[in-house]
Amino acid sequence: MGRGKLRIYLGAAPGVGKTYAMLSEAHRRVERGTDCVIGFVEHHDRPRTEVMLHGLEQIPRRALEYRGSVFTEMDVDAVLRRAPAVALVDELAHTNVPGSRNVKRWQDVEELLAAGIDVVSTVNIQHLESLGDVVEAITGVRQRETVPDEVVRRADQIELVDMSPQALRRRMAHGNIYTPDKVDAALSNYFRPGNLTALRELALLWVADRVDEYLNEYRSQHKVSTIWGSRERIVVGLTGGPEGRTLIRRAVRLAEKGAGGEVMAVYIARSDGLTSASPKELALQRTLVEDLGGTFHHVVGDDIPTALLDFARGVNATQIVLGSSRRKAWQYVFGPGVGATVARESGPDLDVHIVTHEEAARGRGLPVARGARLGRSRIIAGWLVGVAGPVALALLLNTVHLGLANDMLLFLALTVAAALLGGLLPALASAAFGSLLLNYFYTPPLHRLTIADPQNMVAIAIFVGVGVSVASVVDLAARRTHQAARLRAESEILSFLAGSVLRGETSLEALLERVRETFGMESVALLERTSDVDPWTCAGSVGPGAPVARPEDADVDVPVGDHMALALSGRVVPASDRRVLAAFGAQAAVVLDRRRLQEEAEQARALAEGNRIRTALLAAVSHDLRTPLSAIKAAVSSLRSDDVAWSEEDQAELLEAIEEGADRLDHLVDNLLDMSRLQTGTVTPLIREIDLDEVVPMALGGVPEDSVDLEIPETLPMVAVDAGLLERAVANLVENAVKYSPLGTPVLVSASALADRVEVRVVDRGPGVPDEAKERIFEPFQRYGDVPRGAGVGLGLAVARGFAEAMGGTLNAEDTPGGGLTMVLTLRAVASPHAPARLAEPERQTT
Fold this sequence. Notes:
Its EC number is 2.7.13.3. By secondary structure, the chain is an alpha/beta fold. Helices cover 46% and strands 16% of the residues.
């Protein structure tokens, strides 16, 4: 039995119609005769969605009891026993109730897929694990339930359920998503137009990237080399000259005209040394293109037009932007130039833009070196001059007799020309062929391969010697120039590598991608092992089909130290490239070591934080706990003294001092124990549905009367919290607010409902806290301002935030309008008094 297929309906926000679309698809499949059942679907009391359940078989849910409440989850075993062709499973990111078969619903779905059952599911873009921080920055709500991106990416089909923000807000206003009492709060908070637009953009971009992955995978599998203009990708060819910045800005403007345009700037380090790039200018252009949202690429290529076109076709580019040539008019005798060559060979599927700039036709600044390495065209030209040239010259001299000396000089000029063009072999052939023609046609006896005059023999010998010497010098110069150019190209790559180190680029995958791109490989992997007999493990890899088992399986393997190797697949590189590869491998090893050192540093930082906490605890015990103990001891000693006859009023006062000291001591010890529990992760909240007006008033017992104004509406929804933890958190917040409030000014404790959450606000009119200190006051043993040591150990707010987060809520500080500080405690609201405790996220009610 094969693995089942997964289809996911992806939405940008709650209410766009994911579940409705899933149920519509189920009805279509049932009409076609497909065995389709409902494993779990949540209709959220939406009438139109609930109607779609009719006519579909539903697998009974499994009831689970947890902490006094009954919850229902998908019965995975029942679905497996039923073994339908297709199962509908809503809310892929949902967290199952403790006691379920799996922790997450996506793990339930994996079991169904492994059993050969096709699954249709739904998920919102904000529940993708990689987007948690982005979504929190946009909406201010941290998504507690997430699904790994890889689970969604492995889906066989992803369909985006899209709706404009205006249409979604109209649906909300009409009561099609939430109940009427929650509509106003939702529209003014989570469902603001800006939030919805940003979430929609996230969803569209994520799906576009997924489609791009499919396209690249298909092109790779089917070896498609032609360009498919499915998306505007603009490649900017850089030479390192000052015109590069103009080209980048022009390319960005072109990309902005199309949907999803992408700009890739590429600098090709030419191994024959024909270009002179300024490292400083390249660094500026790299920064510019990255600031404008593009990417910078560094490629080595022997032929610039070919390398540029290969790169453009490899990334499926649609346009190439090049600058007008900086060469002088006379320099075009050496060839048409890169721009003209690229435009001629680009084909009909790749547009080439030649952009004018101020540096056009002003020269390159350095003379063009034409002898760096002999290309194929020059070698062919050398052979033509060396072989055909003497024949043509002989035919010419047979009609015009100039004398033996002049004839010999002309043949020698052809030999020198053959050496300059084609190197050693064409020059040797020219010298040999020319000497034969001189002997046959112009040296007595004519038309015979003999020489009668010894002087003519010496002349021909000198002619051959000069030709061979000139050819040897030219060939040696070409090889030396090629070596210098090769070293220069290597130095450019190594300087770029050193620059990445100085810039702090520590991503191993990015470095391996740079290796793959620079050397034109299909995949690169960094392998390591602990000893010579242990198996190899992959520390990082990029590209499809990376060799992760053994370095010997790769086309190229470069040892890095004793137990590490860089493995590359795609082609065999020349031995001269291995030196640069070794440098990349060494840098990869450094990056890997740095990453591991950072992980160890994080562990050490955690240990240091624990030591700091213990040190602070000792300081608290040595001073803050000693003060109430000393007061209690002094009062008890006074009462037990036989030397003084205490009046009833004095005894009552001493007993009151003992009680106050004991209460203060109890409060300090509770905070210390609570912080210890939070630091060790042993806080296990008992989540239940409660009303705020049952808990908040109980938290005010430790403050003076008339010091707090309480505003808790009776219409608030219930919240899912631990009553004890909530009481302690609110008590600490109120105590802190009363401490800093002016005398006679009460602290306000109010609550309100916003979408799927309830906010408790503790408002004081004290001195307030500046923005830069708002987060620091929640750290353990922190007290803001000039507060005496006896005012506490600075744990109240830290404990309150720890308890809030343990219950799935948040605690933040805001400025009070008009002066003061407001503590905002956000809690999860329950959907309705009659529903099980399934809540927590805007689009659905979950546990």
